[in-house]
Structure formats: structure tokens, C-alpha cells
Design brief:
single chain, TIM Barrel, Lyase, Ornithine Decarboxylase, Chain A, domain 1, 2 domains, 9-stranded mixed sheet, 8-stranded parallel beta barrel, binds pyridoxal-5'-phosphate
């Protein structure tokens, strides 16, 4: 998508607006699957939480992906997008037994990460095959909030609790058909993945009738030109070799699963926002945009550094700006950032806005969530309308006081 395309989209659909390039999603999917093309049975389950628009899910379906879901609503979205239940894995954390049973009734693959729930589910539904999410106790991830495989994390069943898992399996007669782990997001070092994979293999040996091993995700994508990223191709070669060896030892051709979110959609997205005002203070120049952390929370939540470009003036001389939002508390997208000269009314583009951006948006300050547009085969397709005041008020009940 070039600048003129983006400007036209901002003009036609208004700002702020999320824009996703379908071609980038397709190329990332193909990159991942070709890195693992020597694995006989590969399953890529797209992590719906990253970007859950139904049209994006349909694109994933056309590519041959399955879905990784974390709530019953994501399961329902997946089914509505046309996925069959067998193409969906449900990997919740901290949800009720009832929600897991509801998902199971719909026929999706259940993934359990809690011994108490495992025992209860196995006792009530011994015939339903279940995957187990282990916690490998590996510290990995780009930020403490997205490192989930370490010892203090609430995710997964500790690898030290395998004897307890085995006892539950024996007592209930349940069938464990998969082992899963996910150690975090933004993991750069493939040795970390390979190290954690060995823990997964060691765990898998305890279970005699598995169908798949799910290695989660967490691949790091570049946030700017020349930025470091997970070397997927090298990881593919190395893990494929180990996986194929393991299948031989295990005596069965297992499916190798991944559940990428960011890797598939992060780079496809650009968030467009308009500059409402340029404000000089004693210490800096603020560019104040018609958005805030209600629409793109990652910089405030994780300290993410999204590249910001001035789409309206890409050749202007570079100056330093602090880009901030309109939310009535600290709401900073970038500090002291070099950007082509900004004039009020310019459109700024925030890169890497495909993953965990719209899906984390809220109505904070009673603002509307933005529109979403899919750039597909040289056409701008509106895939979500901007909210209206109706959406803000629709579930509110005015009582007489
Ligand atoms: C269980 C699980 N799988 C997959 C993902 C997707 O991770 P990423 O977006 O880094 O690929 C997440 C992200 O939080 C997750 O919690």
C-alpha cells in the first residue's frame, strides 16, 4: 500500500482507520508454511485474539489455516467465519468449567492448562480427547506482560506436575491427544524455542496416544527497516529435523502445530490518524492526533515502538515530535520521534498495526472505535464500520432516579 492509497482510504473512510494489506498476510502465511515444508503434517492455527475481524478469519480459512481461540466468543466467531469445529483449538486460561464444556459441545479441540479443571473435565467427559498446555518454565518474551512460560506465570501446568497429570489421566480414563506450550511473544532467539521444544518432547514421551504437538508462537517481527526478527527459516530447518526424529522415536507421525498471531498480521496493518493540533511547549513539540490509547494501547501497555510516518508529507524535512492522543491522561504514542514535518490536518501512519491493536481497542472516554479496511486485490474493502453514538448507548439502561 503506497502513501496515495493510504491517503485516499483516510479520505474515503475518515480517520482514524485501521488498514490491512491482505497480500502481506498471505506472504507471511506462505513464509511460515514453507519454512516447515519438510514436516509431513503441519497445522497453523491463527491466534484470533491478534485481529479478530471475521473477514480476516475468512482470509485465514482460504489460506488453509485453523484457529487458536481463547474465549467461547472467539470459537463462535470462528464457526461463523466458516471454520469447522475440528479446525479450532480452544486454549483458554482461567475460564470456568462451564465455558470449556460449552466449547467442547461445539466440537472444538479442548486445551486445558489447569490440574483442577483437567480432573473435573476428565471425570465428567472421559471420552473427549484433550490437549494439555504445559508451562516449560522458560523465561522468554519481549516484555514482562507477554512472557508467559516462566515459573511465576499463571499459564500452563508445570512440567514438574507431570506425575499429577498422569494420575488424573489414569483415574479418569481420559485421552490426552496433544501437548501444547506457548512461552511468550516477541521471542527473538530461536535457541529459546529449541530449548523449550526439548521440554515439550520430554513431556510428550509420557503420553502414549498423542496426535499432535503444538509449539505455540511468539515469533518476533521487525518493527522498522533493519530491525531484528525471528529467523523463521533457520528455526524451520532446525525444529523440523528434531521433530521428525522425535516422531520416529515416538513411533507415530504426529502433527506439528503453531498458533501465530503477530507473525501473520502485525506487519499487514497501518493505523491512520489525523493531526488535530501541533502544540509547542517549553520542552517539546506535540503532535496531537484524533485518537488515543483507546484505539492503540500497545505503546502505553508494552512500551511498543510503532514507526510513525507522515503520510501527507513524506518528503518534508525531518523534525522531532512527541506524538500523543486525546485521552485525558498520559497518552503517548512516541516521544522525541523524528518525523517529516507535521502540519495540522496531516495523516500519520502507525506501522505494525495489524496485531493486538484493533482487538484491544475500547470506548474509553466514550469514543467510537475506528473503522477497519482490508486492502485486497487493489481494492479498499470496508470490513468494519466506525462506531456511532448508537453503539455507545445501546446497552445502557436509563433508570429513573
Ligand atoms: C496461547 C497463545 N498462543 C498464541 C499466541 C499468539 O502469539 P503471537 O501473537 O506472539 O504470535 C498467544 C498470544 O498471546 C497466546 O497466548
Amino acid at each position: 500500500m503506497n502513501n496515495n492509497t493510504l491517503l485516499k482510504i483516510a479520505n474515503d473512510f475518515g480517520s482514524p482507520v485501521y488498514v490491512y494489506d491482505s497480500e502481506k498476510i498471505v506472504s507471511q502465511y506462505k513464509r511460515l508454511t514453507s519454512a516447515f515444508n519438510k514436516v509431513k503434517q503441519l497445522k497453523v492455527n491463527y491466534a484470533v485474539k491478534a485481529l479478530s475481524n471475521i473477514s480476516i478469519l475468512k482470509l485465514m480459512k482460504n489460506l488453509g489455516a485453523g484457529l487458536d481461540t481463547v474465549s467461547i466468543q472467539e470459537v463462535q466467531l470462528g464457526l461463523k467465519a466458516g471454520f469447522s469445529a475440528e479446525q479450532i483449538i480452544f486454549t483458554p486460561n482461567g475460564v470456568s468449567l462451564e465455558e470449556i464444556e460449552e466449547a467442547s459441545k461445539l466440537g472444538v479441540q479442548i486445551n486445558i492448562d489447569n490440574l483442577s479443571i483437567l480432573e473435573q473435565f476428565g471425570t465428567k467427559h472421559p471420552k473427549v480427547p484433550v490437549c494439555i498446555r504445559i508451562n516449560p518454565h522458560v523465561m522468554a518474551g519481549g516484555n514482562a506482560n507477554i512472557s508467559v512460560g516462566h515459573i511465576d506465570s499463571k499459564f500452563g501446568i508445570s512440567v514438574h506436575q507431570i506425575p499429577h497429570i498422569l494420575r488424573i489421566v489414569e483415574n479418569t480414563g481420559m485421552h490426552i491427544n496433544g501437548i501444547h506450550m506457548h512461552t511468550g511473544s516477541d521471542i527473538l532467539d530461536i535457541d529459546v524455542f529449541l530449548y523449550a521444544s526439548e521440554i515439550l518432547f520430554d513431556t510428550a514421551k509420557h503420553f502414549k496416544d498423542l496426535d499432535f504437538l503444538d509449539f505455540g508462537s511468539g515469533f518476533k517481527v521487525p518493527y522498522s527497516k533493519g530491525d531484528i526478527e525471528t529467523n523463521i527459516e533457520e528455526f524451520g530447518t532446525k525444529l523440523t529435523k528434531r521433530f521428525n526424529e522425535f516422531c520416529k522415536e515416538y513411533g507415530k507421525e504426529l502433527t506439528l502445530g503453531f498458533e501465530p498471531g503477530k507473525f501473520l498480521v502485525s506487519e499487514s496493518g497501518v493505523f491512520l490518524a489525523k493531526v488535530n493540533a501541533v502544540k509547542q511547549t517549553t520542552s517539546t513539540v506535540f503532535a496531537q492526533i484524533d485518537s488515543g490509547f483507546n484505539h492503540l494501547i500497545r505503546p502505553m501497555l508494552y512500551g511498543s515502538q510503532h514507526v510513525i510516518t507522515n503520510i501527507s508529507n513524506p518528503k518534508g524535512r525531518e523534525r522531532f515530535y512527541s506524538v500523543v492522543g486525546y485521552i485525558c491522561e498520559t497518552d503517548t504514542f512516541a516521544n522525541n520521534r523524528r518525523i517529516n514535518e507535521i502540519t495540522e490536518g496531516d495523516i500519520l501512519g502507525f506501522q505494525n498495526a495489524g496485531a493486538y491493536c484493533y482487538s484491544m481497542a475500547s470506548n474509553y472516554n466514550s469514543r467510537f472505535r475506528p473503522a477497519e479496511v482490508l486492502w485486497h486485490k487493489d481494492k479498499a474493502l470496508l470490513i468494519r464500520e466506525r462506531e456511532t453514538f448508537e453503539d455507545i448507548i445501546k446497552n445502557q439502561i436509563e433508570v429513573t432516579l
